[in-house]
Amino acid sequence: MRRFTLLFSALVLGTTAIKAQTVATFDTMHLAHADTFYVNYSAPLSDVGFNDGHAHFPCIYDTSYGGIWSTGFAYSNMTDSITSGYTNEYSAKTAIGYGGSPNYVAVFCSDPVTFENNVRIQLTGSAIGKKVKGFYATNSTYAYNSMRDGDFFGKKFGNGDWYLLSVQGYSGGVLQPATVGIYLADFLFPDPTKNFILNTWKWVDLTPLGNVDSVQLSLTSSDNGMYGMNTPAYFCIDNFTTDEPLPVSSLSVNNTVAAVAKVYPTPATNALYVDLADNTIGQISIVDITGHTVYTVNNITAHTEINVSGLQPGNYILKLSGSNGIATSRFIKN
Q1: Is 203 exposed, middle or buried (0-12, 13-18, 19+ CB in 10 A)?
Q2: 253: pLDDT strictly greater than 80
Q3: What is the pTM of this model?
Q4: How far apart are CA 69 and CA 328, in angstroms?
Q5: Short-list 218, 210, 215, 206, CA closest to 180
Q6: More confident residue, 120 or 302
Q7: Which region holds residue 94: left if phi is over 0, alpha if psi is between -120 and 50, else beta?
Q8: In this structure, are residues 202 and 92 in contact, taking their beta carbons and an 8 Å threshold?
């Protein structure tokens, strides 16, 4: 019997821990139909956010003025990359999630108490006090079009302008000094032909922040007025990835997926099916050849269908995680 073993770049002979990546892809978050987004007015001015992966994403709505989004995170499958203005606040400029996935998260980066442009993602479970690997970020259609064209509040960006997303970590309730930044728009280049407003998904590496309990996302802009930032305080994220080391002694690795599941078809084109023989399996993940987890399923059934149509063709590793350990195997995506 051929033996398959999943090797992460952080796992080498002599190490005492395995890196267990958990990815919040938001693709299992239910939306009633296409081109819609999460709204919850059940508890006005209270956190009605959601959990995915090992993180909580706060969200606050207000029933004033017919119902408004006050701050936080809202998962979305909106595909409107055209319409300008605040009525299109839940759309990513990419019109789709990272890797062609349907869902992503729109972020309204506004603190309703301090009026500063920041929000926090709270880690949960085994991710608390550990490193966050990172996430993908891009502009919302609202912010992108405002910077491209200008609008009632924001200016059209020109040489010398910028729009910056900064990320810091909290540990023990204290904001840590380490900061990771990514320009969502950068018009600071000596060569103006290099100026850009981000309209693709870009990876944000958060490992320099170290061990954290939560991460704070903050926006700043070169365009400000008497009431603060004029640029719309919106952007989008996908594949929020935590990185939890687990003791080797508590984790065994099975030789092959065949011992606990039937996986078919391979090669796979649009769907990969996993029929489980082990009811302890709690998570199914797909890992690419670079070691990045690109898809995670937490709602496991005896017959689980995984949509792989958005994956790039190539070789992948399927990882089944449960209370009895981890089983891995390879499959090909056409």
Answers
A1: middle
A2: no
A3: 0.72
A4: 42
A5: 206
A6: 120
A7: alpha
A8: no
> Which pLDDT score, from 0 to 100, does residue 4 have?
27
Query: How far, in Å, CA of 47 to CA of 45, rounded?
Result: 7
Amino acid at 191: D
Burial 49-65 (b: 16+ CB within 10 A, else e): bbebbbbbbbbbbeeee
Model confidence pLDDT, tens digit, residues 190-212 = 999 999 999 999 999 999 999 99
Helix segments in 103-151, DSSP class H: 141-149
Tokens of 91: 């759309």
CB atoms < 10 A from the CB of 314, how many? Answer: 10
How far apart CA 216 and CA 206 sit, in angstroms, is 11
CB 9 within 8 A of CB 281: no
The 8-class DSSP code of residue 241 comes to E
Q: CA torsion angle for 71, 77, 82, 87 (degrees, to 10)? A: -40
Question: Are residues 110 and 70 in contact, defined by beta-carbon separation less than 8 angstroms?
Answer: yes
Q: How far is CA 71 from CA 49, 203, 215, 234, in A?
A: 10, 23, 16, 10
Hey, what amino acid is at 107? V
What's the one-letter identity of residue 13?
L
Closest of 323, 332, 317 to residue 7, by C-alpha: 317
Structural domains of the chain, with CATH: 31-246 (2.60.120.1350), 252-333 (2.60.40.3080)
CB < 8 Å & 24+ apart, contacts of 220-225? 220/117, 220/163, 220/164, 220/166, 221/161, 221/162, 221/163, 221/164, 222/160, 222/161, 222/162, 222/163, 223/154, 223/155, 223/157, 223/161, 225/153
